[in-house]
Amino acid sequence: MSSLSSFRLQNTRRKLRKLVSAVKEARHCTKKATIERERLCKELNAGKLPELEANSVKVQEMYDAGAFGVVFSGIFRGGRVAIKVARAPQRGGALLKEGVLTARVGEGEGEMWVPQVYGVVFIPWGKLPWGKAGGIAEERERGEICSALVMEWVEGVALEKFFGRGAGSSEVALEVARQLFHFLHYLATLNIVHCDLQTKNVFVCPATAPGKGIQVKVIDFGEAVEADVEAGRKGHPSFQTPEMLARGMPISCPSDTFAVGLLLWWMLTRLPLWQEVVRRLEAERRREVGDENFALTLPQQHHAIAFEELRPPLDLLPQNDAALPPSSVDALRQVLRSCWKEEADRRVAPKDAAEKLAALQGSTPEDLEEALNSFIRSLSSREFSSEGSWDDDTGRSSEVAEQRGDDEDDSEFSW
């Protein structure tokens, strides 16, 4: 090799070493800057939540992805936990506030209804086990530090899965709704509105002791607010209340009562919430205007819910269910009507609704427990989960949360 070639090779190597050094320095600066940002964010939004040592939490696999957050399963202190991170840095503060609110609700009596929050851990984004979700992994810099909420793993089945697969009975539906109304009564004492009570965020779990029936657990307080504030549309589009759709109206504790009424109707019928009633209204309007092609726009549907008391049809409640004699069905209709009043302050008090449902129940705790256990036995261990299920075949979440916001795009809403 000539002296000139040797000089060029050495010069190239020096440049490469400088480049590698600069890259390492940039990564170090990114890590240092982002961890300082995350610590400041935690101090501002979640000062009371403990900071956990990074080596005390083992992240195992990705489990679910929503519009704003991603959930992993993991191990903390020898037990299984759910680990939740924000998909974008600007959502980190909201995630931490969710953790604070969940911890607040879970104190004292609330412990039975919500998962325990263990604390916050700082994790490099690139070291999270993304598996087949490489697209989400590219949304943030690999060396960026992100805040992660570490919470109790809910050993149960989401309503979406339990009733969606035909396992839930009317007896289980009544018990789930009864417990949810008791939960709303408790939330009202804290002046908190969940704002996202839907099929994915309510779990049916085994009770703490054999023979005690089932226990309802509620997750995801990311949309929750203090009562009596103007917060606009929040939560899953299908479960939004008249005051949310009307805009400019305060959200109060009875907003959750409206959503639980929708959940009860859905558990009993297992039909799409709005499809049939919208079809009937469109048929009526077609006769009125003489236009066979008339169809309600999404804003018109929202207006009908907010101001014309458009509600899921009560005549679709089961008529031949041995557990629901005609007198019970009539009583259920009364409960649902009282949940769906247009004026929030006229809706039934959660405690009263719980008592009315209790009077309709004929099943024993053992019956309820066996219904849940039978369904759990039919599931694989992977499906028996805390936050949805990750589809290994497609690499996509089977229960990805819908985009939420104020856009009028039809794709935003599930009817």
Automatic annotation (TrEMBL):
InterPro entries: Kinase-like_dom_sf (IPR011009), Prot_kinase_dom (IPR000719), Ser/Thr_Kinases-Pseudokinases (IPR051681). Residues 405-415 have a biased composition (Acidic residues). Pfam families: Pkinase. It comes from the Eukaryota. Residues 381-415 are annotated as: Disordered. Residues 393-404 have a biased composition (Basic and acidic residues). GO terms for molecular function: ATP binding; protein serine/threonine kinase activity. PANTHER family: PROTEIN KINASE DOMAIN-CONTAINING PROTEIN, SERINE/THREONINE-PROTEIN KINASE TNNI3K-RELATED. This is Protein kinase domain-containing protein. The lineage of its organism: Eukaryota, Sar, Alveolata, Colpodellida, Chromeraceae.
